[in-house]
Design goal:
The chain has 280 residues and is an alpha/beta fold. 32% of the residues lie in helices and 20% in strands. It is built from 9 helices and 12 strands. The strands form 3 sheets. It has an 8-stranded mixed sheet with strand order 5-6-2-7-1-8-9-12, sandwiched between helices. The chain has a two-stranded antiparallel ribbon with strand order 3-4. It has a two-stranded antiparallel ribbon with strand order 10-11. Helix 4 packs parallel to helix 5.
C-alpha cells in the first residue's frame, strides 16, 4: 500500500511517482529559454537518425524559427559533419557557447569539444550521461523555439538520461524497411510510453529508390511494412524518406542546409501545429 508522500524524493521507492520524475529534470541556466524539445530516436544504429534530426532542424529554420540541435549521441556524433562545422565550442565563465551553423542553427556536440574529430570518446556510462546533462544545463542556448535532440541508438543508460533529464515534448522514431523493424520500433515505443513521452511520428529512412529516368520506385532494402507497424503501435504520422544521392552528398560535404526534398514536410508542419497550440 502506498504511504502518504512527504515530498522527500531521496528516500522514496516509488519509481512511477510523477513528482519524483520531475525532480530528475535538469534546470536550464538563466541565459537559456528553450520552448519545445523533440527527441529523435531509433531502436538501433545506422538507420539515419542524425540525418532526420538535421533535416527537421533545417526545415524549421527555413520557416524563420530559432532552432537548436543537442547532439546526445556522445560517442558517435555526426551532426557537426553534416553542417560542415570546423570551429570548436568555446566557454564563458561557467557556461559553454554553442556553435552556429551557416543559417543560424545553434549546435552542441562532443565533436565540437574534441581536439580532433576522429578522437574516440572512451567514456563510461556515468560520464556520458553527465555530458548530456551539461549540454542541456550549462550551454547558453538563448531563446530557442525548437530544440532537436539527436539521441544515441537503442535504449541504453544515455537514452534513459535524455528521457529523464530533459523536458521532451515528444519523440520522432526513425527506422528502416527491414523485417526486424517491428521489434526495433517496439522497443522505442515502449520506452517512450514508460517515460510518458508522446510519440509524434515515425520516419522510414531508405524507404525506396526512385529512378530519375522512368520514375519507378524500387524497394532496395525490402518491401515496406511501416504502415502495419505504425498501426500496431498507434502511430498516425508516417514519413518515408527515399534513398537520395543528393542528400547523402550534402551531408558528406557539410551542406545539409542546402538539401531539397519534401519527404519530411508533413512531419515538420505537424510540429508547427503543436507549437502554435502550445503558444495559444
Amino acid at each position: 500500500m502506498a504511504t502518504e508522500c512527504d515530498h522527500d524524493c531521496s528516500k522514496c521507492s516509488e519509481s512511477d511517482c510523477n513528482e519524483r520524475k520531475e525532480s530528475l529534470k535538469i534546470k536550464q541556466n538563466e541565459l537559456s529559454n528553450v520552448k519545445k524539445v523533440f527527441g529523435v530516436v531509433s531502436g538501433k544504429g545506422g538507420v539515419g537518425k542524425s540525418l532526420v534530426t538535421s533535416m527537421l532542424a533545417v526545415l524549421s529554420r527555413r520557416k524563420g524559427l530559432k532552432v537548436a540541435i543537442l547532439d546526445a549521441d556522445i560517442t558517435g556524433p555526426s551532426i557537426p559533419k553534416a553542417f560542415g562545422l570546423k570551429e570548436k565550442a568555446t566557454g564563458m565563465d561557467k557556461f559553454l557557447l554553442p556553435v552556429k551553423s551557416k543559417t543560424g542553427i545553434s549546435i552542441m556536440s562532443t565533436n565540437l569539444l574534441l581536439e580532433n574529430d576522429t578522437d574516440p570518446v572512451l567514456w563510461r556510462g556515468p560520464l556520458l550521461g553527465g555530458t548530456v546533462k551539461q549540454f542541456w544545463g550549462d550551454v547558453v542556448w538563448g531563446d530557442v523555439d525548437y530544440m532537436y535532440v539527436d539521441m544515441p541508438p537503442g535504449t541504453s543508460d544515455v537514452a534513459l538520461t535524455v528521457f529523464q533529464s530533459l523536458p521532451l515534448d515528444g519523440i520522432i522514431i526513425v527506422t528502416s524497411p527491414q523485417d526486424l523493424v517491428s521489434m526495433i520500433v517496439g522497443k522505442a515505443v515502449k520506452m517512450a510510453n514508460m517515460m510518458n513521452v508522446p510519440i509524434i511520428g515515425i520516419v522510414e529512412n531508405m524507404s525506396y529508390f526512385q529512378c530519375k529516368k522512368c520514375g519507378s520506385k524500387h524497394s532496395i532494402y525490402g518491401e515496406s511494412h511501416i504502415e502495419e507497424v505504425a498501426k500496431k503501435f498507434g502511430i498516425n504520422v508516417i514519413s518515408k524518406l527515399p534513398i537520395d544521392m543528393n542528400i547523402a552528398t550534402a551531408c558528406d560535404r557539410g551542406l545539409i542546409e542546402l538539401f531539397v526534398n519534401d519527404s519530411l514536410d508533413e512531419l515538420s508542419d505537424l510540429l508547427d501545429e503543436k507549437f502554435e497550440e502550445k503558444a495559444k
